[in-house]
Write a structure and sequence with these properties.
With about 500 residues, the chain is α+β, with helices and mostly antiparallel strands. A 6-stranded antiparallel β-barrel has the order 1-2-3-6-5-4. The longest helix has 17 residues.
Length: about 500
């Protein structure tokens, strides 16, 4: 009887354990109930508000440039009021103390105005949102990395520096806390989780950012992002103004490298190839029979490393210094992490008349020309092959004045379509002075959508046309644009 009871108990435990999918997971112990209270108490004394007094009648220099992200999407201004009209000024950003000597880390864009010699600026900080303003000096700047190192001119006797952690150990779903001065509200703390790692932001892509849903707003720039152990694992830097709960921080391991260099009085030199890039679309690669992933060279700057090594437009880079390249972000990160002056092997696929030739180039990296004037964009080289009659395509049924053909490697070669262009029906011919011509259609353009719906073939383009106004979304050498055409 006892054996039977024992069997029932063991059997029940087995069934119960089978229903617990996380039983074998390596779960950490529950967080202490007062963890956020303790974190705030310990961290806030090491966080500073940054104040910038500019002798110039403008409010734009007194605000966090994160407002620029908001204005890009909403189209109107968000200004701080001029602090001179009040008894107390408002912090424009945040920083945090990293050692007993009074070194402070913040974003470059927070103190950017101090670099303008035409302005008389005075930079000060306030510790923990309390007490008098303390004078600081800028020891070093890294515009490309959006980081700056400050130092208190007269550090207080008691100072509470924060410690950097290892951002490589960070896990998605891990709790984090952000500290700063959002919209000038000093001494603020928000809590969330790590939403993603290695996030790329097209406008400011310098590092693989940490994404978090801990609230980050203008004024938080330069503030610390901490894990539950109290270590700084990121510097709050950017937001996505289109949404809530999407903020970005520079990983601490990148910050430490830059700060150590700046503290030693050095300058940050980043590797630079001197090319424009576009990720190779998988469907485009398939249409050409390319089995490798890679990025397409869309532009080569004269006199820079890539040009000196012999790289050309339309080359497909699939390996850099022994590392496989799948996306443009991969190549940017590897190049910037490579020492200036070092020679590395770059493997490419170069288009020929009928195929692609694998080639290897030794490239000696140059330094990023921070303030160098941007090169004028150049039209990519085309594949030198005359148009075959079989790629002439079919004219549109509404007589708008354009013909289109299904995308294929042969058609794209014949119509000089650059490799970096996305997959889609190709415009083959445009009748002069037709609605299509006046609207901006040209041979080689890619039709992406017709009247709001995706078009993957010439047949689908024609099926989506309708009497009256037709709205197209096309890809051109200058990017994507919308065109509206109406039959005459």
């Amino acid at each position: 009887m006892r054996a039977w009871v024992f069997f029932l108990i063991v059997g029940f435990q087995f069934v119960a354990s089978a229903r617990a999918p996380m039983e074998d997971a390596n779960l950490a112990a529950p967080l202490p109930a007062n963890i956020w209270i303790e974190m705030s108490r310990i961290t806030q004394p090491g966080v500073v508000g940054i104040f910038l007094d500019v002798n110039m009648k403008t409010a734009r220099l007194r605000r966090d440039p994160l407002f620029d992200f908001i204005e890009e999407f909403f189209g109107h201004g968000f200004e701080y009021e001029d602090p001179r009209s009040k008894e107390e000024s408002t912090p424009i950003g945040t920083g945090f103390i990293i050692d007993k000597e009074g070194h402070i880390v913040t974003n470059y864009h927070v103190v950017e105005a101090t670099e303008d010699r035409r302005l008389q600026t005075k930079l000060q900080v306030q510790i923990n949102g309390e007490g008098k303003l303390l004078d600081v000096e800028v020891l070093g700047r890294d515009k490309r990395g959006d980081l700056a190192l400050l130092k208190l001119k007269k550090p207080p006797k008691t100072i509470s520096p924060l410690q950097f952690g290892d951002s490589n150990q960070l896990k998605v779903g891990e709790y984090v806390a952000a500290f700063g001065n959002p919209y000038g509200h000093s001494n603020s703390m928000t809590v969330g989780v790590v939403s993603a790692k290695g996030r790329a932001i097209k406008e400011i892509n310098r590092f693989p950012f940490i994404q978090t849903d801990a609230s980050i707003n203008p004024g938080n720039s330069g503030g610390p992002l901490l894990n539950t152990q109290g270590y700084v694992i990121g510097v709050n830097t950017a937001i996505d103004a289109r949404a809530q709960g999407i903020g970005f921080a520079i990983p601490s391991n990148y910050v430490k490298k830059i700060v150590n260099t700046l503290k030693a009085g050095g300058t940050i030199k980043r590797g630079y190839l001197g090319i424009g890039l576009a990720t190779l679309h998988p469907r485009v690669a398939l249409s050409y029979g390319i089995k490798k992933r890679g990025v397409v060279v869309a532009q080569v700057e004269p006199g820079q490393a890539a040009a000196k090594a012999g790289l050309q437009e339309n080359d497909i880079i699939f390996e850099f210094d022994g590392k496989s390249i799948s996306h443009a972000e991969d190549l940017v990160a590897h190049v910037q992490d490579t020492e200036v002056g070092r020679t590395v092997k770059v493997k490419v696929l170069r288009p020929t008349d009928n195929d692609f030739k694998e080639m290897t180039f030794p490239v000696t990296l140059g330094a990023y020309p921070g303030s160098a004037r941007a090169q004028k964009p150049m039209a990519p080289k085309s594949f030198p092959k005359p148009l075959d009659p079989k790629y002439a395509g079919q004219p549109d049924p509404l007589k708008l004045g354009f013909s289109v053909v299904d995308s294929s490697s042969g058609a794209r070669r014949a119509l000089d379509v650059p490799i970096r262009f996305p997959f889609g029906p190709v415009v083959t011919q445009v009748t002069p002075d037709s609605p299509a011509y006046r609207g901006g259609f040209r041979s080689g353009h890619i039709i992406l959508q017709v009247n709001g719906q995706g078009a993957n073939s010439a047949k689908e383009v024609f099926e989506l046309l309708r009497p009256g106004v037709n709205r197209f979304w096309i890809h051109t050498s200058r990017g994507e644009k919308k065109i509206s055409l109406k039959p005459e």
